[in-house]
Amino acid sequence: MVKLPQIQRGKIYILLAVLSWMGLLLVNLIRVFGEINQMEGVISKEITWVLEILFFIWLYIYFNDSIKKNENRNFIDFIWRPASTGLIATGTSFLIIFFYYLLGDSRLSKDLLLMNFFYHVNFAVVSIFLISTTLSWKHLILYQKSKAIVQQWQAYEVILLISMFFVLISQASFNYGFMFGLIFLIIYGAILSINLKWIPYLTFREKWKSILFMVIIIACTLYLFFRLVSYTQQNIHFVNLSENLFLLGLFVFVLLYAIFSLLVTLFNLPTSSVFEQKLTEAISFQKLSQSIKPGENEEQVLDILMDSCMSAAYVDAGWLELHPTEPEESSIIQLQKFISNSERQEVLEFLRKVEPFASYLTKQSTIKKEYLYGQISHETYKSVLVLSVSANKKSLGNIFLLKEVKDGFNKEMINIITTFVGQTSISIENHRLLNEAIKNERYREELEIAQRVQRSLLPSELHHNNSFEIDGFSAAADEVGGDYYETFRFDNENFALIIGDVSGKGTSAAFNMSQMKGVFHSLVQLNFSPKKFLSKANSALNRCLEKNNFITTTYYTINTALKEIHFARAGHCPTLFYSQSLGCSRFLNIKGMGLGIVRNEGYENYLEEGYLEYQPGDVMVMYTDGIVEAKNQENQEFGYDKLRLLLDHYKALSAKEIKSKIVDEVYDFVGRETLPDDDYSILVIKFNA
């Protein structure tokens, strides 16, 4: 059987639709002419309904084919298409109104044949708008394909097809059968309209565009509906084409999905920027944890990989096949899920006979790919995705994912899955390196990654204005550490400062420090009070900190216009504050418990918020316990008193000089050649005005 090219098929479909519409127009004009002249043998309405149904069917097939051809476009293109079609349909309606305005009270303006012609033009553009929009909604609904959603849509298409023929058996517009059918279409359309999984993938700017286009679609839908109905109320000679249950069902579905999309997009709009930022950070943190925290063993890593891939892509079945370590050995099948051995072998043999899967699996393809996906004509499974699991340019095996629907994998799914596979490949290689006793090389690479990441987590710039100076220093006891400080500028007069210390040392502390950075950047933009900020941070960290881990921190907000400081302390070292008016330093001791120690809603009861007013010449020193607990060769601690005396002595210097003097004193006390026992971090703020 010869299959026509897609472009040629589209021309045939649109030609058939035009012919159906012209036949519909001709039949109705003849009927109107006969009724006006009281002629016998008027054409029956059944012919009108049949031509109307054919017109709908050819339009539906044409737009379904056209949209499927362009299904790789982004979401905004798919929303702009119905919006632009609605504008064209509405514009056509306005042009007709303007034409009649120009005719005025002339005889031509009251001509029933001309009125019927424009009525059919209006009906045609309305039908084009509704059918093309419905099929655009279909693409969005089926974006995250699952078997249940595909079956729901297929059932809806069958219901729409039945509704086309309803007019042949029901001549009254609002009898009980008609009302029952319309209510059923409304309910089913509402159920389908809750499938809005594409909205979270929109950027902030795209969501604004989506809102604008949805408003246009809603406005056009409402206007075109009332305009089409108003035609039939003008003259008894009109054939009411809007009696078709199919057409009314499309009006309701297009309107419902546009309204639901508009509301959900509006509700998601305030968190769009945070969502985009956290999505990027989550991927970065995931890569970090995968790089510096390998799985306990290979089987656990592979199990996590399969669960993650199947969950991310709504996969119906899958398995992982590892290449043998020795040439004489056979492939190892692991983690076979939701598929029997016989089905797996059947699918595998099928793939080895079908291109391009055959070349990919036998490594004969000249193009190296990390994955391959497409449709297959298997009895049960219609889509397949095959990914290569490799490490250090060496192929370890393949993962096979199967779905029972066609075109079951989109690019977002594949990007997520390939990320999982890439991270898993690193863990597998790390585990094999451990088994081969190459620990030192692997740890060196991991620590280099952690050092680069930690350096990127510490701020390159400390925010301030002319009212104060600020300078900081941080050094890790190991290759990586768990100390953290950061600043944030709300506006020219308001700033936030934070310093923290994660329990423990090394890579686990650095990872928890990166989580603290993510929490800080998420919460600081909400401009909470210091006490509320720490309470929210505790709730966020409870979900990611291990049971025995905790973080101490101090959070400050500074208003340079009012010369006010608000602060709260979560188990961290008390901040040292020099008062110019008092001429001495003191520690700001307020109540506070570390983040992650109390993991319930009562945590806020363990906090209190401090307040003070600063004057020019005042100095504030924020530090971690590594400074005051640094020990010399006699096992004596540097101590709080020595730190206070140093600030009293160097108070007149700049913030940078005070920081340097304190750091030099600590290293001289411990010994320049002695490795520190803990991380050193310090932040010095000096108020000038």
Write up this protein.
The radius of gyration is 35 Å and the shape is elongated. Strands 2-1-5-4-3 form a five-stranded antiparallel sheet, with helices on one face. Strands 6-15-14-11-12 form a five-stranded antiparallel sheet. It is α+β, with helices and mostly antiparallel strands. 54% of the residues lie in helices and 15% in strands. Strand 11 and strand 12 form a beta hairpin.
Q: Termini distance? A: 86 Å
What gross morphology would you assign? elongated
The overall pLDDT average reads: 83
**Spans of 5+ residues with little confidence (pLDDT < 50)?**
291-295
Strand content: 15-25%
The protein's oligomeric status is single chain
Question: For the largest beta sheet, what order do the strands appear in spatially?
Answer: 2-1-5-4-3
Helix proportion: 40-55%
In total, the number of strands is 15
Helix count equals: 19
| Radius of gyration of CA atoms, rounded to a whole number | 35 Å
Largest β sheet strand count, sense and barrel closure = 5 strands, antiparallel
What structural category do the secondary elements indicate?
alpha+beta
Keywords:
single chain; alpha+beta; five-stranded antiparallel sheet; 19 helices; 15 strands; 54% helix; 15% strand; elongated
Q: What topology emerges from the helices and strands here?
A:
Blueprint (H helix, E strand, L loop, with lengths): L5 H31 L8 H25 L5 H29 L8 H30 L5 H23 L6 H17 L11 H29 L12 H24 L3 H21 L5 H16 L3 E6 L9 E6 L3 H11 L5 H6 L8 E5 L7 E9 L2 E10 L7 H25 L3 H19 L10 E8 L7 E7 L4 E9 L3 H19 L5 H13 L8 E9 L4 E7 L4 E5 L4 E5 L20 E5 L5 E5 L1 H4 L11 H11 L4 H16 L9 E8 L2
Antiparallel strand pairs: 1-2, 1-5, 3-4, 4-5, 6-15, 7-8, 8-9, 9-10, 10-13, 11-12, 11-14, 14-15
Helix pairs in contact: 1-2, 1-4, 2-4, 2-5, 3-4, 3-7, 4-7, 4-8, 5-6, 5-8, 6-8, 7-8, 9-13, 9-15, 10-13, 14-15, 15-16, 18-19
